[in-house]
Amino acid sequence: MRTTVREHLSWILERVGVLPAEEVSLREAHGLTLAADVRARFSLPLWDNSAMDGYAVRAADVAGANADSPVALRIVGEVLAGSASDPHLGHGDAVRIMTGAPVPSAADAVIPVENTRGDRDDGSWATDSVLVQAAVAAGVNVRRRGEDIAEGSVLATAGELLGAARLAALAAAGVERVLVRTVPCVAVVVTGSELRGLGESLERGQIPESNSVLITGLLRECGIQTTEVHHSSDEAVSLADLLRELGERFDAVITTGGIGPGTHDVVRIALEAEPEVLATRVAVRPAKLQCAGRLSGGAFLFALSGNPVSAAVSFELFVRPALLAMQGRGEVRRITVPAVAAADWRGAEGVLQVLPVVVRSQAGPDGEAVLSCAPAVNPRGISHAVGGHGAANGYALVDADRGDVVTGETVPVILVAP
Ligand SMILES: Nc1nc2c(c(=O)[nH]1)N[C@H]1C(S)=C(S)[C@@H](COP(=O)(O)OP(=O)(O)OC[C@H]3O[C@@H](n4cnc5c(N)ncnc54)[C@H](O)[C@@H]3O)O[C@H]1N2
Ligand code: MOO
Hints:
18% of the residues lie in helices and 29% in strands. With 418 residues, it is an alpha/beta fold. The chain folds into four domains: 5-19 and 183-326, MoaB/Mog-like domain (Molybdenum Cofactor Biosythetic Enzyme, Chain A); 23-44 and 150-181, Alpha-Beta Complex (Molybdopterin biosynthesis moea protein, domain 2), CATH 3.90.105.10; 49-143, Molybdopterin biosynthesis moeA protein, domain 3; 337-415, MoeA, C-terminal, domain IV (Beta-clip), CATH 2.40.340.10. The strands form seven sheets. Strands 7-4-6-5-9-8 form a six-stranded mixed β-sheet, with no helix packed on it. Strands 16-13-17-21-20-18 form a six-stranded mixed β-sheet, sandwiched between helices. A five-stranded mixed barrel has the order 22-24-23-25-26. Strand 23 (352-363) and strand 24 form a beta hairpin. The chain is elongated and about 95 Å long. The protein starts with a helix and ends with a strand. Ligand LQZAQKY5 is lined by residues 190, 192, 194-195, 207, 209-211, 256-262, 265, 288-289, 305-308, 310, 383-384. Catalyzes the insertion of molybdate into adenylated molybdopterin with the concomitant release of AMP. Its cofactor is Mg(2+).
């Protein structure tokens, strides 16, 4: 029986290891993986503060206020956002207060300015006394210290991807620097004597080289800038030398092409000298041929098929999770979402089918939004279909024992659009 996707991924994840951690500023941390839990240095909010522009009051003083019988309060001060002042309020007093300003210790509620009348007829803010036209309960319009986050609590956990919202939370809670995992340095090597650079003229049998565009783009979509791209000659000896050299300088090396049983499949031949690299057949279509492991130079190698869609699917199933694991990411697998098949298609008998699909949001029977998916390529020949694959924003996962897919059935889909 052939290796399953799960088994092969486990084999890789057991071997990739985790890269070292380094401390960076919050601004440098976006898109990186946190290496250690971070606690809030401050409570959020930091102080009891006003949610409204208005008047800080003692709720008991305005208990009976309404539009017909407003309650007059004496204005004893003003607090703006950023002000350190804490004016005292006695019975019948009010303090002008702006949104975000610390609520005076002696006040317990804020009346929005809209519920008051000033001491002049022009509707402006009161200066000496204010007429309050609505009662307010204690605590209303006061954002309490610590109601969002308590000081000392864990605000971010090791293994998470640091996005904009989390970094803003850390900044607000007084965190300046965080420990993050190093991003892997990755080199890409394409092989194939039929390949020509973009814009070069093509003789019969030659094609534009597109896998380096694919792989560097997929790497960028998981936060990795490729620093070197090589086009190797179809000669196993020089390729073995190149892999040995790259293996010493990079954390990971990704090759495409040359892993089949053909006479000139140079990657397969060059890797025969690498004892920790495993070539295997996985029960999946496309991406059946898999080859991965640690090069003697030290880098982790992923030798992907030259077929562009096989390379993309291999990247999604094995390379992306491995590169995330190297960064200590807690969750390396994508979530699947259910989508309704918008067409019939043939499954891949006996193996998992990973079909590039176009996923759309459409109205369900009760007007609710549901996802639909339609094949982006012909399911009979997926691995070479670089053109149709360009439209795909997801992959439908059709289990080995499921058989064909019928219009209207629900299929699990992973969304891969950047
Ligand atoms: N006798 C068998 N033949 C094949 C088998 C098999 O089991 N027995 N497996 C097939 C499968 S599955 C795959 S996948 C391929 C593996 O192919 P290679 O990794 O050796 O890839 P190549 O032969 O080098 O190229 C395949 C295809 O992709 C095009 N290609 C390659 N590199 C690029 C690139 N950088 N940009 C664009 N296109 C590229 C290449 O021209 C070929 O058309 O083997 C099957 N055969
Ligand atoms: O490795 Mo090949 O994809 O099965 O197309």
